[in-house]
Amino acid sequence: MSSVSEIQFRPYRSSDSDAILTLGERALIDAGIDPADIPGREDLLDVKGSYDDVGGGFVVGIVESPPASLPTELQTEDGWLVAMGGYLPNEHGYEDERTVPGAVELHRMRVAPACQGEGYGVKLLRELETRIAGAGYPLILATTSEKQQRALDFYPAQGYQTVDSSDRNGYTLVHFEKPVDELSEVS
Questions:
Q1: What are phi and psi of 70, to 5 degrees?
Q2: What does pTM read for this prediction?
Q3: Which of 28, 99, 140, 175 is deepest in the core (most CB within 10 A)?
Q4: Looking at the predicted structure, is the pLDDT value of residue 45 above 60?
Q5: Which of the two residues, 100 and 84, has the higher pLDDT score?
Q6: How far is Cα 43 from Cα 16, in angstroms, rounded to an integer?
Q7: Structural domain boundaries enclosing 28
Q8: Mean pLDDT across the chain
Q9: For the domain that residue 160 is a member of, what is the CATH number?
Q10: Mean pLDDT in residue range 5-33
């Protein structure tokens, strides 16, 4: 397996489209989630309009040498997609979830199943947090399904507090948040 230090983050490029769709679907299936239950993929079909144009961002994590079990569909023009995630102002997030004025939401946080547990998720989160802090947002929101045990363990371990839960499409969602001024408290 590639060492975590080899991951490089960069902004999404339109040539990454097929790879991010594949990673998004495979990561959900691996977590026991039916991708059809997750709100549309419109944001992944128009990353620039859905993230960049509204004051957010979307990054991909690329490695040069993938594990043998990584599907060929995750190959990009500059390596292999092993992680991805975005953020957008809360007012541009899902209408039927919580509203926290001035906050930013993490979206589409995914690590390739073959690469989970290797630290890529932590590095992805740190990359997004750095970008969010630089953009001046005071609070970061994250939401995951109670079926995604790795995510339920991940966010609190990274300093996020559980603040609420809700039901959507037959899933119980768990809501987390973290003030940007607390970013340096967890390394």
A1: -75, 130
A2: 0.90
A3: 140
A4: yes
A5: 84
A6: 13
A7: 4-185
A8: 88
A9: 3.40.630.30
A10: 90
